[in-house]
Amino acid sequence: MHILVTNDDGVQAPGLLALAQAMRPLGKVTVFAPDKNWSASGHVKTLDRPLRVRETTLADGSPAFTSDGAPSDCVALPLLGFVEKVDMVVSGVNPYSNIGHDVTYSGTVTAAMEAVITGVPGIAFSLASQDNHSPNTPTDYSCAAHVARVVTEKAIHNRLTEGVVLNVNIPYVSIEELKGYMITRQGLRVYRDALDKRIDPRGKPYYWIGGEAPTGISEEGTDVGALMAGYVSITPLQLDLTNYKAMDVLKNWEF
Amino acid sequence: MHILVTNDDGVQAPGLLALAQAMRPLGKVTVFAPDKNWSASGHVKTLDRPLRVRETTLADGSPAFTSDGAPSDCVALPLLGFVEKVDMVVSGVNPYSNIGHDVTYSGTVTAAMEAVITGVPGIAFSLASQDNHSPNTPTDYSCAAHVARVVTEKAIHNRLTEGVVLNVNIPYVSIEELKGYMITRQGLRVYRDALDKRIDPRGKPYYWIGGEAPTGISEEGTDVGALMAGYVSITPLQLDLTNYKAMDVLKNWEF
B163, CA 20 to 30 Å: which among A70, A136, B136, B235? Predict the structure, then answer.
């Protein structure tokens, strides 16, 4: 079992190290991650410029590859043959949850999508540390690493269905406090973005996408609801975005 | 009816001008597009830097806004209040088709997704000019513009269902040659990417994501199939990516 570990926060992010270490008992691990932070970067395939690859080491001294490509490029290059055949791609651990509509923006999730498009199972791991964590203390990835190992082991053992991306979100609690695991559907995010217009020192306007952090509608059975109840949320995602119900409606539009 | 027109190829792209002109008979048109080409850039929300907005003019002399943000930012800023209330967002016309798995990579499609997430109907228009068009002649957008007006008019008249993104792909033919309109599901893209390793003048390796252009599996009822048969393909997309069938499988994994 050859497992590729990547993320969207960059090769030196502590969540990547935690994930790489969690995967080692499960097989051979290759780390290949971006050389910078690509959060909220979406699904990118870099076709207009060549990519560089550099060897580096993680904080525990283990080897890793890093590239100036986007997270999806860091999946595409290894899967196109930069390294030997990959059997599973895991992405993360993202320090913040990726739930609801976050999935199409998220570099963590789209890296796992890239794997599945290429025919390799992909799992994205995100930790809801924004919920109860002071930014002044380092994020504790021990529960997330435990969950990542458990879920990946199950995915290997049960042969994760082809074409399915697993989007795993972990509450920010200790292993002992974890309530369990829930299979969920994608919930609803509530974005509270606001336009924040400011004037620069030269008197010209510039704009931040500001506002408050997104919340979610805590419905039972959703990723949002599972996290809020203290459970790991496992949402199987598909790459077919067709709205089949809407097809019937559109057929009455009479073109 | 206030229609926002955007794209992922940049404010000076001829496909944007064609789309803006096609929308004018349907209502008030505001053009707000990126100041550079963002093809294959995915769904980006720019939160780590402020955005600039500049007034410019299209090739026909009509006014437009342009920003250094991504295509989704060019939807977010107007919808967050940079301009008056928007009723419909149209994106394109992209010079190449966006079918199958292209939809999560495509800036054209994710701009329309951004609108729908914010609660405004969104339609993406792409022209399959790669199929039978010499790169030495300018792309003819007349059929695409005609189709964009017909589809947008139907969407306004029939009140496009909330939460649905329309992904419209137009064959590269004349209006007379057009076979008609098909409501389709997302088909299968076949990517033929290959790793292309080269050595720079300093003796160091660099990598292109190379290979041949993607093809598609031409199944009846899909976007791929409709285009190949000479029809406009209209695929309703949803933002819920949950694979409901896989949920039942995962529930047997016994966590």
Answer: A70
- B218 touches A: beta carbon within 8 Å: no
| A215: helix, strand or coil | strand
Asked if residue A31 lies in contact with residue A64, where contact means CB atoms within 8 angstroms, the answer is yes
CA distance A194 to chain B (A): 6
Where do we find the tokens 């590859």?
Answer: A65
CB contact under 8 A, B105 and A43: yes
What are the chain B neighbours of A148 within 8 Å (beta carbons)? none
Residue of B207, B219, B235 to mutate, testing the A interface (most A Cβ within 10 Å of its Cβ): B207
**Residues of chain A with C-beta less than 8 angstroms from the C-beta of B241:** 103-104, 186, 237-239, 241
Cβ count near B66 (within 10 Å): 20
Q: What pTM was computed for the model? A: 0.93
Q: Using one digit for the tens of pLDDT, what is the confidence trace for B155-187?
A: 999 999 889 999 999 999 999 999 999 999 999
Show the tokens assigned to B122: 């969104």
* Residue A214: burial class (beta carbons within 10 Å; 0-12, 13-18, 19+): middle
Angle at Cα B93 formed by Cα A76 and Cα A106, nearest 5°? 35
ipTM for the predicted complex comes to 0.91
* Distance, CA of B71 to CA of A41 (rounded, Å): 12
CB-based contact A50 B198, cutoff 8 Å: yes
B55 CB neighbour count, 10 Å cutoff: 8
Tokens representing B245 are: 């069938």
Question: Does the beta carbon of B244 lie under 8 angstroms from any beta carbon of chain A?
Answer: yes
Spatial distance between the Cα atoms of A88 and A116, rounded to a whole number of angstroms: 9
B232 is written with which tokens? Answer: 């406009």
Asked if A243 and B73 come within 8 Å (Cβ–Cβ), the reply is no
pLDDT band at A217 (very low <50, low <70, confident <90, very high): confident
Angle at the Cα of B12 (from B7 to B18), degrees rounded to 5?
A: 65
Instruction: Tell me the residue type at A182.
Output: M
